[in-house]
Amino acid sequence: MIPVTKPFLPPQNEYQQLLDGIWKRQWLTNMGPLASRLEMEIKDVLRLEHLLFVTNGTVALQMAIKALDIKGEIITTPFSFVATTSTIVWENCKPIFVDIDKDTLCIDAKKIEDAITDKTEAILATHVYGNPCDVFAIEAIAKKHDLKVIYDGAHAFGVEIEGKSIFEFGDITTCSLHATKLYHSIEGGLLVTKNAKLLAKLAKIRNFGISGFDTFSDLGINGKNSEFHAAMGLVNLKYLKDIKNKRKLLSNYYDEKLKNLKAIRPTWHKKSENNFAYYPIILESEELLLKIKENLDLNEIFTRRYFYPSLSSALPYLDKIDMSVSDDIAMRVLCLPLFYDLTLEEVDYISRLMLRIQNN
Ligand SMILES: *Cc1c(COP(=O)(O)O)cnc(C)c1O
């Protein structure tokens, strides 16, 4: 059996060593020493000024919308994980979908201005599969129309643009450190901002809005994360380079082996490099996708229609609308198995099987 993904697990003794410290200190959660150390180390690795380690990527999005005091319409992408849209609704804002670019699969910046109304307050866009949005165009639009920008960077850990972290763009970028992501802390999330005042506000929101003994400054939530999660994050951080290199090797091998597949790959941002968080292919037709997927299933090779269906037509709490590019891509996109433990032999096997299914 080959799953579509498998979480990276470090040598158990390295995790155990950090647990020993937790037992000594008996400090289990609430901004403990390991959580603080994780924040410092991630800042060093990604060369960021400010960030917060939080419960998960979804709470990070909720906190971002809250901290920026957004209440009206938020322009967003229909081609993302459900949390990007559901969070907007959860925060009592209205998602306004703008279609995606057919090559990059990120929100089509050229279509954003047409969707702006007098109620628009923000843009919330996803760096799909880690591929950066057109951040420069979005920045210009946001300036012109006085909009806030939040990026869902759940896929984009370690991605840079012109040599600087993609997490530096927008008012706030969120990230998920969930077990299935490229880099993880079992459950976890990040909030990144360049604005120190906003960071201070987010830190209070993370801790119930408490601002001192017996005082409250903001409407808050429990967005904290534990020492146990931080410990996993700290150990895994040491393996980040290894993880990326292995995924790169496997991805390049898929590229080579699947040259004759009737499929294309998303176009990566010209000023950025792939972090190999996923291996998506866009097949010629949904028919071919289903044929390949069903036959791989029979061989116990599991792929994932990620993202499918397009959020603009999938959510029972929103009116369904047509988004021609997103609808079309969602029907034809498939993510192939990609994880640290996958072998070149397995990639070879999966690829040969796929070509055989296609040509049958
Ligand atoms: C995983 C993911 C999230 C949610 O993150 P959690 O840590 O699981 O809450 C949000 N957006 C995108 C694009 C994701 O892939």
Automatic annotation (TrEMBL):
SUPFAM superfamilies: PLP-dependent transferases (SSF53383)
Highest taxon, organism lineage: Bacteria
Listed GO MF terms: pyridoxal phosphate binding; transaminase activity
GO biological process: polysaccharide biosynthetic process
Entries under Gene3D superfamilies matching the protein: Type I PLP-dependent aspartate aminotransferase-like (Major domain) (3.40.640.10)
Keywords carried by this UniProt record: Pyridoxal phosphate
Active-site annotation: 181
Pfam families registered for this protein in UniProt: DegT_DnrJ_EryC1
Keyword Ligase recorded: no
Statement: the UniProt record of this protein carries the keyword Magnesium: no
Residues annotated with N6-(pyridoxal phosphate)lysine modification: 181
Similarity annotation: Belongs to the DegT/DnrJ/EryC1 family.
Protein name, as recorded: dTDP-4-amino-4,6-dideoxygalactose transaminase
Organism: Epilithonimonas bovis DSM 19482
